[in-house]
Sequence to fold (607 residues):
Amino acid sequence: MERNNVNGGPSALRFLFQNPAKRTALLFGFLLVLVFFLSACQQEATSTPEIVQPTAVSISLSPSVKPNVLLIVVDDMGFSDLGYFGGEISTPNIDGLAADSVALTNFHTAPTCSPTRSMLLSGVDSHVAGLGNMFEELAPNQKGKPGYEGYLHERVAPLPAVFQDAGYRTYMAGKWHLGLADDQAPTQRGFDHAFALLQGGAGHFSDMQSLWETEVGNRGKAKYREDGKMLDALPDNFEYSSQFYVDKMLDYLELKKESSSKQEQPFFAYLSFAAPHWPLQAPAEAIARHKGKYDEGYEALARKRLQRQIELGFVPKDTKLGPRPADAPAWNELSTEEQALSARRMEIYAAMLDEVDRHTGRLIVSLKASGQLDNTIVVFMSDNGAEGHSLDALFPEPVFPKARDWVLSTFKYDLASLGGPDSYVLYGPGWGWAATPAFRGYKAYVTQGGTRVPAFISYPALSLGGSKSNALLSVKDIAPTLLELAGIAKPNGVFRGRDVAKISGQSMLAVLANEGVDTPGLSEVKERVLGFELFGKRSIRQGSWSLVHMFKPQGIDDWQLYNLDQDLAEQDNLAESHPEKLKEMISLWEVYASENGVVLPDWNSGY
Fold:
């Protein structure tokens, strides 16, 4: 596993996993033994990371001091957007968290929102959890099939409910997208309290506009639920989505109060931002902070970001810039007016991430002030790759004709209006490419641009900071990792008296702990197989090999084989030159599809 260590932070975990008998002792409070051992050790001046000094461990883990959990998910963010990951957008608060984390540089999700969220909150494949396809995109032959219910199904043990049963208080604020009905609400899946946007997207201001409930010429109304109640209007203090979701989480956690009895009980908190998902909207003052920053265009931005990611070690030194998408014109082919409109869209997008960072900072400052941050596991991730579709490509006939007509006939598209509540825009394939300059594709692709996302895990109590892991990891791995860190047993096929699917994700603790192949559990992670399928697009990953099948124009309607060690952007198809490997990978795909009940659609929208 490729790994760069800056501060030597994970060596406490390295000791833990090289000595399996010590794992339980460390996790349940015998940190003093470890501290004594570390203080006695001498480290030779080699390339091996230094052992953590005792002062770096801020608290002792014990049954009476359970870790808090904070899951932060952003929507449609690209691999290079964050400052820490090589972007030019100012994200100092998130970057600060990342600097005290293990950055997961080969972490994969589903290609779109709801399938990813189903895996995050269950630890099982989306085709088992109920989101084998997005509810909005179900094909006729998938309807009524197990795994294609379109909501987080009862056949899984929801992660918040598992934490709830372990004595945690559980809260959610933000986008849900895992069921609209009363019995599919967040509070029916283990959250004590939740303020949730139920659909896949909505406007970011208080007008509740939605794509999904529309008539031509009329703005649709988004569905929001607070605990068990559907809302007819948003609260008066809902000024912007990112601001309000953080405010709500602060209220739930009572961090605004100087003291709270609740702080003695650990929490499981899910902060699920709706930004920077379309429509691209942000407060005017936030957009103004980015004025003029993207006038050079997406080609220049892609080159700069790739170079910065190489310098920071997020991609190998010999990584080539992926090709510009065929539906993104060269920047110099656009008129001056077209360039201005396109650059403004990127300014809005940057402002949305700016706002996510600013409000995340408020939550982190409050956790720190309350003394709880040191005992809080923070997981940060995007739910899929950058959204690179354009408006016309996103709503082709005849799938969403009313929605497209509604968008184009209801909103304003002049430069002055873009980004406000009267506009409804995406930023298109050029900027989506710049967000993932080393990879092929973006959201809805099963290539790396659609599934490989920025992610990191921070836990000050174990001093994990300053390192990068290039192990092949999945969003399904979050659930078992958190349960192991919290000392909570995984549901073993039964939960609350009903049969449930066993967690298929793998705990990441071995990966976080050690870079050596002898670490227990690490070798199987290195050789693991990850399968993907959505909208009939399918892929299987094993080590550096990637097998992909996508329809035209995204693919060739046949299997394509790539070696990512030499071809990170998946451009050189090796299917003909490596027939035995092709056959092997196709067999792996067939096993994955059979084990997870994949039903390939007989219809798709082209998304």
In short: The longest strand covers residues 68-74.
